[in-house]
Specification:
339 residues; alpha+beta; five-stranded mixed sheet; two-stranded antiparallel ribbon; 6 helices; globular
């Protein structure tokens, strides 16, 4: 290059231009991030819906095989190996063979062996995570915690309290508080369970006189929303109370244990925080809840899955007179309509 030839200018960003480019990129990321998060939640919600559909199909296959839907839980309180704080098998444990988990069902010897005895030998299996029973949006642990909820756990045969696998999908028990026996008056949930699942229940298709498309069968319960604990539910078993079976509304000890850990009520709207004024301070944990924005998903008795907005009308009167009541009642004779 000649010493008299002018030096060529170097191409590049000035500091101001570089800062502008970085700012534009930051704005684009800020605009796109919510869309990405929404897309991920949509995918998680779709997977959750598929989980519920599979549960619905499994429950129907169980009905086709045995002539009725599984019991809400098997009351084995009359057995010598069952006493206070031990376990009673849940409806979910009974349908494992219809979810391609027959090996888990057989290893645990569901039915003949009590959950507490099964915990002695197969604690790892009893505390594993089973994705078929977990909503992908939920951030809870794999199994119940003895520190956060001792009553959610069960004792093994050596009386050591141990957590067991959590589930985000629970059977619908009632349109009022959780009860062990079937209602004597389906127009009033305070007379007993108005839903499909309760103690030693054997609900058949013909019992669902409201129609399978009008009756909720399984619903969601999340582990936590913000600072509010719902603690999900237990997959395998409900804890015994004082040797008389799992606690429920018509007997004491319902603080955080018993049938409310495997069954749901439609007593109040989804994600609603409400506590009963008497000796049942944890009833707000017994309803429907989820991490999905705006509501929860439910599986109807016909196997279809619907999204239930958290604005769905409910009350706490006990009378069957709201959409939430109608959904949790299989024989009230009411028309649900839109929600």
């Amino acid at each position: 290059m000649s010493p008299h030839e002018p030096r060529r200018a170097r191409n590049g960003f000035t500091l101001v231009e570089l800062l502008v480019v970085i700012a534009i990129i930051g704005v684009l990321i800020a605009l796109l991030l919510p869309a990405v998060q929404q897309a991920r939640e949509a995918a998680r919600r779709m997977q959750c819906s598929n989980n519920l559909k599979q549960l619905g199909l499994s429950l129907h296959n169980y009905h086709d095989t045995f002539g009725s839907f599984p019991s809400g839980y098997i009351d084995i309180s009359d057995r010598a190996d069952v006493e206070d704080n031990k376990g009673h098998w849940s409806w979910a444990a009974l349908i494992l063979p219809f979810l391609e988990m027959g090996n888990v069902h057989d290893i645990l010897d569901v039915g003949p062996t009590s959950p507490s005895v099964a915990m002695d030998t197969y604690q790892e299996i009893m505390q594993a995570r089973y994705d078929a029973f977990r909503c992908p949006s939920d951030t809870g642990p794999d199994f119940s915690s003895t520190t956060e909820c001792a009553g959610c756990c069960i004792e093994n045969s050596g009386s050591t309290n141990l957590g067991h696998s959590l589930s985000n999908y629970l059977g619908i028990n009632s349109s009022a508080l959780i009860r062990a026996h079937q209602a004597t008056n389906f127009g009033n949930g305070t007379t007993g369970a108005t839903g499909m699942f309760y103690r030693d229940s054997d609900t058949r298709m013909r019992d669902i006189t409201d129609g399978t498309s009008n009756t909720a069968m399984v619903g969601e319960r999340c582990y936590r929303i913000g600072t509010t604990d719902y603690l999900a539910g237990e997959l395998f078993a409900a804890r015994d109370y004082d040797g008389g079976g799992p606690a429920h509304r018509d007997r004491g000890g319902m603080a955080d244990q018993g049938a409310c850990r495997i069954l749901l009520t439609t007593y109040f709207s989804p994600n609603k925080i409400w506590q009963h004024a008497d000796s049942y301070p944890k009833m707000d944990e017994s309803g429907l809840s989820s991490q999905h924005p705006g509501g929860v998903q439910i599986c109807m008795a016909d196997g279809s899955v619907r999204f239930l907005p958290e604005t769905t009308a409910s009350n706490i009167s006990g009378e069957t007179d709201t959409i939430m009541d109608y959904l949790g009642n299989m024989a009230d004779g009411n028309v649900i309509g839109e929600y």
